[in-house]
Amino acid sequence: MSRQQACGPAEARERRQYAEQQLALAELGDPWSTPAERKASGGCAVLAGIAAADAVCCGRLGRRSRGQDHRAALDLLRRVEPDGGQLAKDLETVLADKDVMQYGTALVTASRHRRLLRAVRRLVEAARAVAQSGPPPGQ
User: Fold this and answer.
1) 66: which residues sit within 8 A by CB, 6+ positions away?
2) Is residue 139 part of a domain?
């Protein structure tokens, strides 16, 4: 069973700000970085993506996933209107790379790094859009 936590605009703002800071660190990596540098950058990108997903869920749904399995957040993201399906796919990309970026020993290719950053940027942009539009009516 997935654990969820109630949250609102304040938590959405905190998670968005954290996502933005982690993305800024992740973007220090580039195609000319070494595999180790891309892995460090990717670790920050993973943290940014998870935090951005939390921000979107808090801002739009009033709750976020709090279980050990980050994949439980996918179901919540899919409920977000209008782009929940794409956001869930982006988070799937992030979660697929989490182990490699944070714990693995495999080399991180430039193409894998770029794909991860594209997904994370979309999640962070969605978190920013939620912040600009405010909570949905009734929340």
Assistant:
1) 3, 4, 5
2) no
The secondary structure of residue 137, as a DSSP letter, is: T
b (16+ CB within 10 A) / e for 76-102: bbeebeebbebbbbbbebbbebbebbe
At 23-46, the pLDDT tens digits run 999 999 877 889 889 999 999 999
103 residue type, one letter: Y
Instruction: State yes or no: pLDDT of 3 exceeds 70.
Output: yes
Structural domains counted in the chain: 1
- pLDDT tens digits, one per residue of 74-104: 999 999 998 999 999 999 999 999 999 999 8
| 26/46 Cα distance (integer angstroms) | 9
Residue written as token pair 């594209």? 118
| Parent domain of 9 | 4-133
